[in-house]
Design brief:
alpha+beta; Glutaredoxin; globular; binds glutathione; 5-stranded mixed beta sheet; about 210 residues
C-alpha cells in the first residue's frame, strides 16, 4: 500500500490509524497547497481532485476520502477495536462521528484557514465551529474517547483537526483563529491521545515531535 499524505493535514488521522493497526504502507509526502509530490511530480496526475489522503492498494486500486480510508484500514485489523463491526449500532455511531467531523469540523475550519478569502464569513464560521467544539467537549465528559473507553478512528480524525486550533496546550499546525482553551474535557482528551505511542510516532515523523 502507498499513502499519499501531507504533514499536519487531515491525512494525519489516516497516518495514526496505520500505526494503531500495525499496518505497513509506503508514505509519500505531498505539498497539499502546491499539489507537488516530494521529490518531484504533479500530484494531480495521481489524484485528480488534488487532495490528501489517498491510498493506493497493492493491486493498484485507489481509495479516496479520509474517513473511508480509515475504515478500510481499521477493518483489515478488526481486533484493534479501531472500528466496531459492520452492521452493529456501534458502527453507525462511528459513522455519525465521522460524518460530523467531516462536515461540521473539518470543512468548518476552512473559512478560518483561508480567512482573507473568506472575508466577513469568518464572523459566521467561527462561532459555529466553537459551538460544535463545545458540543464535543460535553460528549467527552466522563469518558476517555469519543466512543467510550476504546480509541477509534474518530479520535484519530478529531486529533488531526484539533491541532489546527489555537490553545496553549496544542502544538498548532495552521494556527486557525479559534481558541479552544476553554474546553477542559477536550484538553484532557487531547493529552490522552497525544500520549499514545502511535500518535507520538506520527508526530515525530511529520515533524511535530518534541
Ligand atoms: N473530502 C476529503 C477532503 C480532504 C482534504 O480536505 N484534504 C486537504 C488537506 S486537509 C488537501 O489536501 N487540500 C488540498 C486541496 O484541496 O487542494 C477527505 O475527507 O479526505
Amino acid at each position: 500500500m502507498k499513502l499519499y499524505h501531507a504533514p499536519g493535514s487531515c491525512s494525519q488521522a489516516v497516518h495514526i490509524v496505520l500505526h494503531e493497526a500495525g499496518l505497513d504502507a509506503e508514505l509519500i509526502e505531498v505539498d497539499a497547497r502546491r499539489h507537488v509530490i516530494a521529490g518531484g511530480g504533479d500530484f494531480f496526475e495521481v489524484a485528480p481532485l488534488g487532495y490528501v489522503p489517498l491510498l493506493v492498494l497493492d493491486d493498484g486500486a485507489v481509495l479516496r476520502e479520509g474517513p473511508v480510508i480509515a475504515q478500510y484500514l481499521a477493518d483489515l485489523k478488526p481486533a484493534s477495536g479501531l472500528a466496531p463491526a459492520q452492521g452493529t449500532m456501534a458502527r453507525y455511531r462511528l459513522h455519525e462521528w465521522l460524518n460530523f467531523l467531516t462536515s461540521e469540523i473539518h470543512k468548518g475550519f476552512l473559512p478560518l484557514l483561508y480567512a482573507v478569502a473568506a472575508g466577513r464569513y469568518v464572523d459566521t464560521a467561527r462561532p459555529r465551529l466553537l459551538a460544535r467544539f463545545a458540543w464535543i467537549d460535553q460528549q467527552l465528559e466522563g469518558q476517555r474517547y469519543l466512543m467510550g473507553d476504546t480509541f477509534t478512528i474518530a479520535d484519530a480524525y478529531l486529533f488531526a483537526l484539533t491541532g489546527w486550533g489555537k490553545a496553549a496546550w496544542l502544538k498548532s499546525v495552521y494556527h486557525a483563529d479559534i481558541d479552544l482553551s476553554g474546553f477542559e474535557n477536550l484538553r484532557a482528551w487531547y493529552k490522552r491521545v497525544r500520549a499514545r505511542p502511535s500518535v507520538l510516532a506520527v508526530l515525530e515523523r511529520e515533524g511535530f515531535g518534541g
